[in-house]
Amino acid sequence: MKSEVEARAEFTAVRYAQCWEDADVLVDALDVKPGDVCVSIASAGDNTLALLARAPSRVIALDLSAAQLACLELRVAAYRVLEHAELLELIGSRPSARRSALYERCRTLLSPQARAFWDANAEAVRRGVGSAGRFERYFQVFRERVLPLVHGRASVQALLEPRSADARRRFYAERWNTWRWRLLFRLFFSRFVMGRLGRDKAFFDYVEGSVADRILERTRYALTELSPADNPYLSWILTGTHGAALPFALRAENFDAIRSHLDRLEWRQGSLEASLDELGSRAVDRYNLSDIFEYMSPEGTRALLERLAQSGRSGGRLAYWNMLAPRSRPEALADRLKPLTDLAQRLFARDKAFFYSALVIEEVA
């Protein structure tokens, strides 16, 4: 089965050097059990590794991009040979002047292809491998060139301080949500600028309405109804590093569990459809699908969901995000997939990766 995504987007460079879906939400959405077989869109690798903390028997990471798989492979090597604090330095979560040396300790564990990729990107290693993607560079432009026109460093640090919900709402209304903030935000996160600098322009083919207005409202929610002090994704966007809060796979309490299950992880370059053909029917318990359907037509989405249901075991789960293009199980598949709407809405209400418009969780019949 040919991949519609493969024909629509470009996959030669690192698009995402980090996973920009909240892994805490993902882990709870999938409810991975010991012994489960999981299929995961690799992306940068963080959320695939997060699944290992729940002791599945097998995690199959897939990506069309060799560059994205190089991100995953370097992380796997880092978990094997580095200590937790060193991993945070290599990623860029913490300051470091020795990232090149840390990379050298990981380098011998890499495949020739991944080693050649990172050897050719030595500057990206020195800056922190978590900043090496197109999407992260897009946020860097926002942080260094746009945000200072609106808010100074003191205001940014104040935003990230712990506050009650009422205090966060007052801070947003009285200090943060200025006319300049709204104007520059709408310009920078417009369909045109995001397509040029951030995400692949094919991402917007099925999007209707104002991209910037939707993201602005989700940002307001993240800055008021959620706690910025506990949001590593927001911290990276605004400061270029993770603060006191870390994503699931980078937290100390999950480090050993991930490291101890690395032998259960495998990765492949290729389409999801091809791997499903290989795996066959009733073979998979859990699917981490990232936001794969954003690139797909409604017809392509229906065909792939049908194939996922065929390869899924009864009671298995699919989890995926909608950012701007609404995608979910069509009525034609009502006998194959059951929406877990209440669970999805509860988890989405605490989703720290705030630019998505919906989380979808579906159960295989």
Can you lay out the helices and strands and say which pair or pack?
Layout: H1 4-8, H2 23-30, E1 37-41, H3 46-52, E2 58-63, H4 66-81, H5 84-91, H6 99-107, H7 112-119, H8 122-127, H9 134-146, H10 153-159, H11 165-176, H12 179-188, H13 191-198, H14 211-224, H15 232-239, H16 252-260, E3 265-269, H17 272-279, E4 284-288, H18 298-311, E5 312-322, E6 337-339, H19 341-348, E7 358-364
Parallel strand pairs: 1-2, 1-4, 2-3, 4-5
Antiparallel strand pairs: 5-7, 6-7
A few lines on this structure:
The protein has a domain at 134-239.
Overview of the structural elements:
This protein is 49% helix and 12% strand. It is built from 19 helices and 7 strands. The chain is α/β, with parallel strands linked by helices. The model has no long low-confidence stretch (mean pLDDT 93). α3 (46-52) links the parallel β1 (37-41) and β2. The protein is globular, with a radius of gyration of 20 Å. A 7-stranded mixed beta sheet has the order 3-2-1-4-5-7-6, sandwiched between helices. The chain has a domain at 134-239.
